[in-house]
Amino acid sequence: MATILGGITTSHIPAIGRAIDEGIEQTPYWKPFFDAYPPVREWLSDKKPDVAIIFYNDHGLEFFIDRKPTFAIGVAEEYFNSDEGWGIKPIPPIHGESEMAWHICNELVDQEFDITICQEMKVDHGLTVPMQLMWPGNQYDHIKVIPVCINVEQHPMPSPKRCYDLGKAIGDAVRSYDKDLNVVVFGTGGMSHQLDGQRAGFINKEFDLYCMDKIVNEPQALTRLSIRDLVEQAGSQGPELIMWLGMRGALNPRLTVKHSNYHVPISNTGAGLLLLE
Ligand code: DHB
Ligand code: FE
């Protein structure tokens, strides 16, 4: 049967991708941020997962605000990024795990989740920046990806509890898959940030650290928050934190924290990193 080895949370700020492309990871601004990643990379090269299930949000590349699935799952054989308006360098295609993705979709529909199933789908920085961070030099040819895309761009957005429940259903689906594949689950995005409006630049370090603690020790506390609470506490882009709840739902209730880091700010955002086994 398939096994979930652990979960990783990371921010997905586009400027990180640009810093990687420009090779400026060791400059004073970036060093403390990038220096947090080697332990996670080492864990990945040690555990060698076959599949990465990635909870992320699409910022308008594939799903613009004119048509927004609440939950979209990719079942394609391959995924591509393309220019999101800031000249992202082309990266190698990302391989999909089509068969397991279809299994997950079947199970989710059985569990009454009304997902959008995507046989073609462009993936944006929400998914590709974490890939570049985890596998330097874009050395991710060996891993197959299942994108799980959750709407946090257009209200109404799914509640933290709904995303946690989706994660639980995905975890159950993985554990009922009859091939011996090892899976790592990602939650990308967050932490607090607000990119526009009167509170542009808003960051809430205290709330970010509270979320990092709760995601590990008491995720139920976060499921009691509403999207409105997240906007208030973590800024208008703070709802990206629901990706972390999706990841957490897929993991065992009991886990070990292998690595943790919080660095603020990167661009406009509080950047959190967790490795959970
Ligand atoms: C930033 C953060 C994001 O999550 C994003 O999607 C785009 C930009 C930022 O802080 O610059
Ligand atoms: Fe984002």
From TrEMBL:
<dbReference type="GO" id="GO:0016702">
    <property type="term" value="F:oxidoreductase activity, acting on single donors with incorporation of molecular oxygen, incorporation of two atoms of oxygen"/>
</dbReference>
<dbReference type="Pfam" id="PF02900">
    <property type="entry name" value="LigB"/>
</dbReference>
<keyword id="KW-0223">Dioxygenase</keyword>
<dbReference type="GO" id="GO:0008198">
    <property type="term" value="F:ferrous iron binding"/>
</dbReference>
<feature type="domain" description="Extradiol ring-cleavage dioxygenase class III enzyme subunit B">
    <location>
        <begin position="8"/>
        <end position="269"/>
    </location>
</feature>
<dbReference type="InterPro" id="IPR004183">
    <property type="entry name" value="Xdiol_dOase_suB"/>
</dbReference>
<protein>
    <submittedName>
        <fullName>Protocatechuate 4,5-dioxygenase beta subunit</fullName>
    </submittedName>
</protein>
<keyword id="KW-0560">Oxidoreductase</keyword>
